[in-house]
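Lab meeting notes turned into a lecture example. A postdoc, R.K., suggested we walk through two folding results consecutively so the class can see how the record format repeats. The first protein's sequence and structure tokens come next.
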Amino acid sequence: MPENENRTIEVEEQQEDLGRIEISPEVIEVIASLAAVEIVGVSDLHGNFASGMVEKLSGRNYRKGVKVDLTDDGITIDVQLTMNYGVSIPDVAEKVQDNIVQTLKRMTALDVHEINIHVVGVRFDHKEKTGSEID
């Protein structure tokens, strides 16, 4: 069992008399993955074989391609994604990082220590030729 599985992140309390707010790493993974695919130039998130099987068996897996580690320094997020052919990879990767930080800050008030972008593929969109286009 991964060491982060049962850990939660405690959000700084705004009012002490109302209780605690805890956010699981899985929620952060979902938010980060949705924020990543919002960026133009990102084709898809890339998961491993196990996450691919889970997605096929259980439907959509919004955490695919995102891993959250809770370290002593803070939250570290690793994102594996496929880019569209022809985009500037550094520009799109920076936009993904910025969007994840802004979205997590807005939705959870959490600060992220590090977001690592791993480009694991490039997607080429080929138009299929119809019978009239084939010589």
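The second example is placed directly after the first for contrast:
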Amino acid sequence: MAVFEYILMGFLVICAISVSFSRNLLNSILIFMSYSLVMSIIWILLESPDLAITEAAVGAGVTSVLFFVTLKKIHALGEEDEETDE
């Protein structure tokens, strides 16, 4: 079980570093979502289900939806698609 926890911790570090270096906003949001989901799994392993549910709902759910809506409102999603086509 300890190996699984170390793998999850390593994945958290990789996600944190890759979010800061990602140039694509959509990819950054998806990496942030995966970070929150892995963090909720770690909270379950630490026997704290209330924090796990909160992390999954707020971190991966509500915050990500707000990020997607913000990108859509500022028209950042369409512009990134046009830049990658060139």
